[in-house]
Amino acid sequence: MKLDMKDFWDNSQYAEQHYISEPPTDEMITKIEIDLGYKLPKSYILFMQHQNGGIPKNTCFPTTEPTCWAENHIAISGIFGIGYEKSCSLGGEFGSEFWVEMWDYPNIGIAIADCPSAGHDMIFLDYRECGPTGEPCVVHVDQEDDFKITWLADDFESFIVGLVHDDVFSNHEEEKTATFHMVNTAAFSTELMNLLSKQSDIRDLETKLRKLCKGIVEEKGYFALHSDRKSLLLYDLQFWLYSSYYDEITAERFLDTYPKFIAMPSEEEVVSSGGYAPDFVRDWLKQRMEEGAIVEVGYYIQFTEREKNRLIEKFNEM
């Protein structure tokens, strides 16, 4: 592969935690291929033997037609490694089978890369023409457009070599600036503003909420909630606001109401991530309950008094 592997990856603690596994053994490769039902491309295997999954420095791939991400390119968040341990690996919690079985993506091959939309578009190895043992092409699949499939490259190697830095696309900084303006000046949704108006424990909370949202944009270049530290804090805040105002909160009730806050409010021109991946929110809630921060009282859930006070103190110190 004509690529400088030393300069390809943008390694970080987040990448280490969610993407990067130990180099795959022959046994691991065989097991993954049997489990997924497809033979992995040789170029993909060789690539993963250098580093098994991760986040590349170049995250964009040019296209000749518009996609849900942009008029002339798609973007990826990370590339899945061969393994089962890391959540973003071929056999991991958010691996290939997860997107087909839980998100109804078409069963055309193997999901190898996720995108910044948190699940609303994905990159697949497409085996429809070559069969399960052939050389697959690489495609973009858009869940929001009835799973529209857009061809990207003839093979995995061509896809990897063709990745470019987001600076190549001149509107990136303009989009980031527009997103900053949105989270800094746009109104919050009616539901969220109502909850903000009902609390007095945190001083100037609206300003601090905007500061947190701007921090997310600064780190990612866009506004979306995943499993990073700032996103988890924003999940905490939204749950605290909701459970502080309403009684008898069940997990199902909160998860059903959650999109109305920031993810997918009904109003136009409000602070919004424009969509969300439900499993990130469910995983956050599951984790917080396993940690004992959110507890069940009868049929209902709430923060412990200690965790509530910790959250209030954290925001008051911002």
Automatic annotation (TrEMBL):
It comes from the Bacteria. Residues 23-162 form the Knr4/Smi1-like domain. InterPro entries: Knr4/Smi1-like_dom, Knr4/Smi1-like_sf. Signal peptide: none annotated. This is Knr4/Smi1-like domain-containing protein.
